[in-house]
Design goal:
Helix content: 25-40%
Order of helices and strands: HHEEHEEHEEHHH
Oligomer: single chain
Largest sheet: 6 strands, mixed
Distance between the termini: 64 Å
Radius of gyration: 18 Å
Length: 228
Amino acid sequence: MRHTWIFLLAMFLAVPAMAQKDKVDQRLENSGAVITEILNIPDNIPQSLLDKARCVIILPSVLKGAFIFGASYGRGDMVCRRGKTFDGPWGPPVMMMLAGGSFGFQIGGQATDFVLLVMNNDGAKSLLSSKVKLGADASVAAGPVGRNAAASTDAYMRSEILTYSRARGVFAGISLAGSTLRPDNEADAALYGHDVSPNRIIAGDVPMPGSAAIMIRVLSHHSPRLNP
């Protein structure tokens, strides 16, 4: 009888963990779909910028709603090039959380896909270690579009993070400045089966999740190596 209760207790505790794992896997699959679609449209991220990016953050279907004061909240993931200087192949994902707000006379709501390019090592290291406020802790700018767009202006060269969005709702062009990004440690634990730091994930101390396969394959195809 005692063994039966232990078994039932283990099953009771396992169900929420499995549900959390399924949600995280779905986030990664959604990210794979978003980056596939964005990189396959004609006017997308300039190749020169993608090749310089140390990390790519994908936030699918970030929710925004506002009545005078707008707020955003979303979950996604960040994949970085392996190695201490972020110059290797794309590694396993670190799950991320976005939170922020915007002020304006806006009424309604929307879900927007965001893609952020982390353009230097300092920006990547700061995102892996703590919560980062965009525009304050890390310089941020809206990225140019078009594969052949000029991407060497001072604004782009100085910025640690470049942001892109794909709006599906009633709002468009809402800036991410003032929002915060931080690692989602709970989701990382669910994905990899144990507590693991973002730095260990980026170092490749965990297996590549199957749910990240499409995202990694697409990034590896479009930008297989760093070109600083």
